[in-house]
Every structure is written in structure tokens, then in C-alpha cells.
Amino acid sequence: MLKYDLCIIGGGPAGIMAAIASGERNKKVVLIEKNDEIGKKLLLTGGGRCNLTYKGLTNKEFVSRFGKQGDFLLSSLSSFGVEELIDFFNKRGLALKVEDNKVYPKSEKAKDVLNFFKNELKKNNVTIITNAEVRDFLFKDKKIEKVLLNTNEEIFADNFLIATGGKSYPNVNSNFNGYAFSKKMGHKVTSLTPALTPIETKEKWVSVLKGVSLRNVSIKLNKEKEVVGDLLFTHFGLSGPVILNLSQRIKTKDKIFIDLFPNKKIEELEKEFLDLFDKNIKKTIYNILSDVIPLKLAAVILNFSGINKEEICRNINKEQRKKLIKNIKNIEFNVIGLLGFEKAMVTKGGISLKEIDSKTLKSKLVSNLYFAGEVIDLNGESGGFNLQMCFTTGYIVAQSI
User: CA–CA separation, 155 vs 136, rounded Å?
Assistant: First the structure.
């Protein structure tokens, strides 16, 4: 009878890292994935560029990006944090680059990261079973003895890891049964909701801005404090890092206000525009405005301001100029709601952290069961935080068995 040291259910970032790190410790590992290949969700991260982690924070600052649950990660990060992850890739030959503290593969291709992982799995003799789902966990002497697959194959192991991901991107995530099986084994699963998701707005004209991106703009949710970040317009509303991070607090009928020049007061902008118009009196307002604002957005703002885009600068009066600047500093959107799990980057909720040992990621209820990655009740901001969490928890499991 073939018996493994570790049976991993779920071939996402956490499961892959656990498999490689275990294989490097000469453990016999099997990785079970329901899709026809591993790492499909990895290909979607960072817009296909694969944002691996976020550099430049202390561990305490890093976990703060996961909200009040974040402290659970502190112990794991102290063993395998951001610098250790970067070192992991560098030592094994994956070239990296840093952009605004975000770490990417140098090629900026997620496929290269996946190919890197596949090579490491092969190098470390990890057995991979694809197109297979776990049908049941079977126990002996209060420990999991084996898993039964939908192919009727039985997999025996000393230790088992559930790394089945969340409900986000249901077409590519590993296996939602991770929640059901965990419940069956006595674990609590907290409420599951989409997180880091785009929003749909009432303003349908936003569709003309589809694909337009803005850097370092200010976003204000209702009367909350402004946050600055990058934004992307979609055919249904708003997306981009700053919106995704706000999405966990956004509700139907909320208002969002965008300031295109957060570092400049209205008075400063008015003086700058006055000088600009004076220097370009014979040019159209549209040509001048499109030098400082994306073309499609310039047309929309001029329309809001009641200014014909073919109007020449010398004909813009004070009232029109003030209205134009007001609209540049305060574009309003009304929220219809969040998009669902199909568009969410991660899942909020999961296996209760109270029932998982933070030092080992071992279940407190089943002695040879571990959890890692998105399946647990831990989700952070966009920017590489969630991938780091997956890699870290997967690595810690490998060190714990």
C-alpha cells in the first residue's frame, strides 16, 4: 500500500508551496486538483502580471492590511515572511522586479511563475493528480486515514492539508467542498462573502470610460476619510486597487467621490487653469484638458460642466471655469452594489481561526489535518497581500509535518 507523508487537496498557491517545501524536506507528497491543471487562479493575479507580495512593511504593518484577524499571521510571517519569499524565488532562479513596493516576476507574466512552480514540483518528486475531487475523508483511531476520490481511488497519508481556496472565481478555484468537509469534521465556517470586488454604479455613462485608468486619485466613500490610489473604469462601474480595497465596506446606495488632483486645492487649480488658458487662448478647451486628463474622461467632464469641447480657451468664462474645476475635484458615483464571487479576487470568511493553531496551521480538532490559504478566515488588501498569505501558510504547514 502506497502511503504519503502529506496529501494536499487543492493545487492553488498555498497547496503548491506546501508541496514544494515538503518535497524539499524529502517528504513523499501527493497534490490533488479538481481542474485539468494546477495554479489556474494564479494566472489571473495582478492582471496577469502576478503580484507575488508587497515589500517595505514590518510584519506588524503587513498583518494590519488583513484587518482585526491579521495578528493570526504574525507567527507564520516571522518564519516565512516577505523577504524569505523573495529569497525563495531568487535562490531557485525566478527573477523578480519591484514596482511601487509590489513584487512581480521580472517577465511580468504569471505563466512564468506557474511554470517555475511546475518545475519545482517535478524536481521534488511531488505526485500530482488532476481532474480529481475528494469524495470523502475516512477516519481511523480519530485521525484521517485516507481520502476517497471521485475516481474511487483511495489516497493514504500521515497528514492532510485542505488548501481548496475560496468561492471567488468559481470556474478556477480548487474545490468548494473544502468548506463542507471541514464542517463535517466539526470545524466552524464563518460567513462567506465576496471581497476585493469591483462595484456597479448607477451612472451608466461610465461605460464610455471602460478601460480608462487613473493613478493616485483620491477616493472618498460617503463622509469617510479620503484614500489615495489607482482606479480603473469598467463598463459597469469602478474597479482598480483603491476600489477593491474599499469594497469590503461598500454597501448599496453608498456614494463615492473622486478627486482627480487630491494634492491641489481648488484655488491652486483655478490659478493653474487660468494660466493654462491664457497661454493657449486659441486652442480648444478639449485639447488643453486632454493634456492633463485622459481623453475620454476630459470629454465627460466638459459635458458635465456644460462646456462644448470645441470651445476655444479664451471664450471660457469664470463661471464655466469654476464649474469645470469643481467637477474635476468631485466626480460623484452612486453604488448599486458589489459584483459577486465571479469577479471577486478573494473570499471573506472561511475556516474559523479559533480552531487552527497559528504556529503550525494544524487543526485543533483533528490531529493530522492542516489548513492553508484562502480557505481560512483571513483576507487582506490587494497588492500581493493575499498571495503572500497563501505562500506563507503553505510553507508553514510543510515545516510542521
Answer: 11
Residue 191 burial (10 A CB sphere; 0-12, 13-18, 19+): exposed
Q: Which of 388, 393, 396 is nearest to 372 (CA)?
A: 393
Q: What number of CA atoms fall less than 13 Å from residue 359's CA on the CB side?
A: 0
CA-CA distance, 16 to 114, in Å (whole number)?
10
CB atoms inside a 10 Å sphere around CB 387: 29
Q: Report DSSP letters for 284-307, one per residue.
A: BHHHHHTTTS-HHHHHHHHHHTT-
Of 129, 140, 112, which is closest to residue 10 (Cα–Cα)?
129
CA 38 remoteness from chain centre: 18
Tell me the pTM: 0.89
Give the Cα separation of 232 and 247 in Å (integer).
14
Task: Return the C-alpha cell found at 186.
Answer: 466539526
Give the position of cell 506563507.
Answer: 392
Residue type, 44: L
Contact of 334 with 201, CB cutoff 8 Å: yes
Cell numbers representing residue 102 in the block: 509590489
Q: In the chain, how long is the greatest CA-to-CA distance?
A: 87
Domains observed in the chain: 3-193+344-400 (3.50.50.60), 198-339 (2.40.30.10)
pLDDT tens per residue across span 37-77: 999 888 888 778 999 999 999 999 999 999 999 999 999 99
Beta carbons within 10 angstroms of residue 271's beta carbon: 12
Gap between the Cα atoms of 346 and 323, Å rounded: 40
Amino acid at 354: K
